[in-house]
Design goal:
heterodimer, A: mainly alpha, Arc Repressor Mutant, subunit A, two-stranded antiparallel sheet, B: 897 residues, alpha+beta, 50% helix, globular, membrane (chain A)
Chain lengths: 111, 897
């Protein structure tokens, strides 16, 4: 299987983009990360990560209509590509496979 | 309460900063996100916190992905994928134009070789006296002696004149806090050729040159001591430190030598207390032995042979030598004899500077060997510049052809920076070729260079700093040489070039001609310098010194020979040897009379108010003349082939001559202001007598010095100084063999060691000889390199005008008219550079000649010869190519168009 390299943070951002379906843009993603994972990140980290993901072809973006709360500026709305979601699924698959072979004591402990 | 409260806004400066650095395509969304977050924070937090957060965000975005690129489209600074290509192109260029490349590489290689050889030499000169561990703190005394008429600088130590042995600064260490050490070293008035002294241990007798030094000497200077204790070696009056060579000579090994006794001048025994490593050329001082200082100061027990001494101070860390000098002056001034007709001032000079800067101007050490170092460094750089100019010139000339390439590259989209890189790459490639070649050349030429300079230079090719230097040399040369084509060609407008519209502007042509003029000017300058230097050297060697220096040898009177009957016996026997023409004695070697009677010498004995050593009839009170006194035998004048201009020479027929007669030279007559000197009285050293004759002036020293007043008397019963022997031409070898026999018989405790006057005489001009040979070599090289450049230019010019030449020939032009046509421009270049170089050369050579008291005139023919020579060489070079082009079959050249 072809290996896909996705950093841990990138993976989270990608998941959040998937979750926010249609409303995924910089600030929003940042807030969502905070809400979902309790992790406080900086705006520039999110932007950098989004840019990398876009370069890798996991997500695509388009500019939205201008909104007043941003001083009339447009947002860049991200959405996940088929490749992105395949990747996410692959990752999950790998994890599931691994979990299935994890010794039962660890499994019961976490469960 | 204000209803229209202004809405909160983020800090303005942060926004501006963001606008400045943020890439435009990202700005909108980033700025939007940040504002949104700002308002969000304002709602959920305080405005202040929101502003803080905003600033943090702005700063946080200063990351590579968000930062504006300066120019677009972007390209890497070093185009890795193009380097191979450039290399190939450069190599093709080099190989396609073999003649041009060869001219470039050979020219540069010659320039670099000169540079390397010279810098090895310079490094070697600078290393002299620089090896002492405490070198930073070692200072030598120099004195500035000012009299009403004269300012003189000397390395000497102030003494009390009535008692030569009393050094006025011997308690400086106690008196001045900064002085941590004080060492004396005797230099002797007959140095630097020295006077070898006789040592004997068992049946081994040798003559060796050495000196006397005080106890601190071996601890202050880092002459490595291999046996014995350097701290105490010179403490005892019997102590003698000797070199490894001397230890091996007498005792077999350094360890054996320690504690052994050695007999000095058959008078006194010394005990070997230390053995030091043989001196390297890195030491300006030469000595095989060092005797205890007190033994030197003692006038009785040991032959006192020198009253000049060098004092070296070891100063404390951070001590200011100028302040110490002030303190020394304060210490010395009150101790000086009263009523001296001159003032004396002490200065301190770093010990390591003494070798290179030992000429004085107005009482400060200024020039000396450092001038040669500077001159030759300059010359080496000149030659390198000439070679670089060749390169630039050829590259510029060829740029018409390269221009098309530049145009194509630019159209395809090469940025200017790449083109610059490419041209620099090419010149660097060539300069590294040249470096390789010059290393080979250096290996071949270094032995020759060593013979000329009397050095033992080795190219330190194994050391890393050398390679760093060499590679930077190649880099600098390459960049210098490649600068014009790189900067000029890369600036060409592609449209004009490809239309074929590039004809060189008048400026570019002038620039090229200017460079050629500059390099030829430099060559002519060197050529003139060479002629002047070799003329001067030849002049000095062949100059009529006033005496005949050929076939004249001398040796020191010592041991038994200083007794009247033994001397007479020696003279009788030696005169009977075949080949000996005359023998006599003199108190000093005739070509190196260092001794000058100071104005005040002899003051203590006379006790008179007007205490001058030498007086004469009609002398006005206070009038002083510095004489060179010498005492000789009756045959001296004949032996030396001196001329008498007035009166007569010494003669045995006059019973009064040995007590009453003096000879003076013309200079003395002049300075004493005498008319009709014959019969007037003079007194020297309390001996009063009459002038019986006037000698024609002859040189008693090197020609750097003017002729001094001379006073000569005959001493029949005193034998000291030297014995002079005049042999018949070509008989020296036989004479010496026979004389050694006689000598051994009469003076068995001393080895026979002699010198030739003419050899010594040549030694005095070794610097000038080296200078002369080197400048010969350099002038030839400079002309060679310049001509290479000229050859390149004419080749190019001929190539460019192939069509023109073809048409002219087809229409019936003769070969000679075409040669003339091609040569015209270049001859003009040589003429212009000659006109420019001449006045500069005249000025510089005038300066150089001022260092000689006897010098040649700068006559016009020197410049004429240089000009004609340069022109001839240039013409030969030019015609070499011009004739070839002119004779080419026009069919060939026209068909190719």
């Amino acid at each position: 299987m072809k290996r896909v390299y996705l950093g841990e943070f990138e993976e989270i951002v990608l998941l959040i983009v998937a979750v926010l379906e249609g409303a995924a843009y910089g600030v929003n993603i940042m807030h969502e990360i905070l809400d979902q994972t309790g992790r406080s990140v900086r705006l520039n980290q999110v932007h950098a990560s989004l840019q990398r993901l876009e370069e890798k072809g996991m997500i695509v973006s388009k500019m939205s209509d201008p909104t007043p709360e941003r001083g009339g500026r447009r947002k860049r709305i991200f959405s996940i590509t088929a490749y992105g979601s395949t990747t996410l699924r692959d990752i999950q698959q790998v994890r599931a496979t691994l979990w299935s072979v994890v010794p039962s004591n660890l499994k019961s402990f976490t469960a | 309460m204000n209803h229209f409260q202004t809405p909160p806004s983020p800090p303005r400066w942060a926004t501006r900063l963001l606008h400045w650095y943020c890439a435009p395509e990202l700005l909108e969304e980033v700025q939007g996100d940040m504002l949104e977050e700002f308002y969000f924070q304002c709602r959920h937090n305080s405005v202040a916190a929101a502003r803080r957060d905003y600033v943090r965000n702005v700063l946080g975005f200063m990351r590579p992905f968000a930062i504006k690129r300066k120019s677009s489209p972007s390209y890497p600074i070093l185009p890795m994928n193009m380097i191979g290509h450039y290399f190939t192109v450069a190599l093709r260029q080099v190989l396609r134009h073999k003649a041009f490349s060869a001219i470039n590489v050979v020219g540069l290689a010659i320039g670099m070789t000169c540079c390397m050889a010279i810098f090895l030499w310079v490094a070697d000169e600078k290393a002299v006296d620089n090896f002492h561990a405490k070198g930073d703190h070692l200072y030598n005394i120099y004195m500035t002696v000012r009299s009403a008429t004269d300012v003189e600088g000397v390395y000497n130590t102030p003494r009390r004149y009535d008692s030569v042995t009393h050094v006025l600064i011997d308690d400086a260490k106690e008196a001045i806090a900064e002085v941590q050490g004080l060492a004396f070293y005797a230099t002797g008035y007959s140095m630097p050729w020295g006077k070898a002294e006789t040592f004997q241990a068992g049946d081994k007798i040798y003559k060796l040159e050495g000196s006397r030094a005080s106890n601190d000497f071996l601890t202050m200077f880092s002459y490595p001591v291999i046996a014995g204790d350097p701290k105490t070696a010179l403490k005892d009056i019997k102590g003698l430190a000797i070199s490894r060579k001397m230890a091996n000579l007498f005792f077999g090994s350094p360890e054996e030598a320690i504690g052994k006794s050695i007999r000095y001048e058959n008078k006194r025994d010394f005990e070997i207390t230390a053995v030091f490593e043989d001196l390297t050329p890195q030491s300006s001082r030469r000595f095989e032995f060092l005797a205890n200082w007190d033994a030197h100061m003692m006038r009785g027990g040991m032959e006192w042979s020198s009253n000049n001494m060098e004092a070296t101070f070891l100063l404390a860390d951070g001590a200011d030598p100028d302040q110490v000098a002030v303190k020394l002056n304060k210490l010395v001034q009150p101790r000086l004899d009263k009523g001296l007709p001159y003032t004396m001032e002490i200065g301190l000079q770093p010990y390591r500077d003494q070798y290179l800067k030992s000429n004085f101007a107005d009482g400060k050490p200024v020039g000396g060997r450092i001038e040669y170092v500077r001159i030759f460094s300059g010359v080496a750089i000149f030659i390198l510049i000439i070679a670089c100019i060749n390169f630039m010139n050829l590259a510029t000339a060829r740029s018409v052809k390269r221009a098309k390439e530049v145009g194509v590259r630019k159209v395809i989209g090469s940025p200017r920076l790449y083109l610059i890189g490419q041209f620099f790459g090419e010149s660097l490639l060539l300069s590294f070729f040249a470096l390789a070649l010059s290393l080979l050349l250096l290996q071949v030429l270094l032995p020759v260079f060593n013979t000329v300079t009397g050095k033992n230079l080795v190219a330190p090719i194994t050391s890393i700093p050398t390679w760093i230097t060499l590679i930077s040399l190649a880099l600098i040369t390459g960049i210098l040489a490649g600068s014009y084509p790189a900067l000029f060609l890369s600036s060409l407008k592609p449209v004009r070039v490809l239309k074929g519209a590039v004809q060189f502007t008048q400026n570019a042509i002038w620039f090229r001609k200017g460079l050629a003029v500059f390099q030829f000017g430099l060559s002519i300058l060197l050529l003139i310098a060479t002629i002047v230097v070799s003329q001067q050297t030849a002049f000095m060697q062949s100059m009529n010194l006033g005496y005949n220096k050929e076939n004249l040898l001398y040796f020191t009177i010592e041991g038994e020979l200083s007794k009247y009957d033994k001397f007479q016996a020696f003279k009788q026997k030696a005169l009977q040897l075949p080949g000996v023409r005359a023998i006599d004695r003199s108190s000093e070697a005739p070509h190196a009379m260092k001794f000058i009677v100071d104005d005040n010498d002899g003051a203590a004995e006379t006790g008179e108010e007007d205490n001058t050593a030498i007086k004469w009839e009609g002398r006005e009170k206070g009038e002083m003349v510095g004489f060179k006194p010498t005492s000789v035998g009756f045959d001296f004048v004949k032996l030396m082939d001196l001329q008498i201009v007035e009166g007569r020479s010494f003669s045995r027929e006059y019973a009064t001559d040995s007590a009453d007669a003096f000879l003076v030279n013309e200079q003395a007559v002049k300075e004493m202001g005498m008319k009709d000197p014959i019969g007037k009285w003079v007194s020297a050293w309390q001996k009063k007598g009459h002038i019986i004759g006037v000698l024609k002036d002859y040189n008693t020293n090197s020609l750097h010095e003017r002729i001094r007043p001379l006073i000569v008397d005959v001493k029949e019963y005193e034998y000291f100084g030297v014995i002079l022997v005049r042999t018949e031409a070509g008989k020296a070898k036989e004479v010496l063999a026979g004389m050694e026999q006689v000598y051994k018989e009469l003076n068995p405790n001393y080895p026979f060691s002699f010198r030739f006057v003419d050899e010594d005489y040549n030694d005095m001009y070794r610097n000038e000889q080296v200078m002369s040979k080197l400048s010969n070599a350099f002038a030839i090289l400079a002309i060679l390199v310049s001509c290479l450049g000229l050859l390149g230019l004419i080749m190019f010019s001929a190539e460019q005008r192939t069509r023109e030449i073809g048409i002219r020939k087809a229409l019936g032009a003769t070969v000679s008219s075409i040669v003339g046509l091609l040569s015209q421009d270049f001859v003009k270049i040589v003429l212009v550079s000659f006109v420019l170089a001449t006045p500069i050369a005249a000025y510089l050579m005038h300066q150089w000649l001022n260092g000689f008291a006897f010098k040649i005139d700068l006559s016009w023919w020197i410049f004429g010869i240089a000009g004609i020579a340069a022109l001839l060489v240039a013409l030969v070079t030019i015609s070499f190519q011009a004739i070839q082009s002119a004779r080419a079959n026009p069919v060939e050249s026209l068909r190719s168009e």
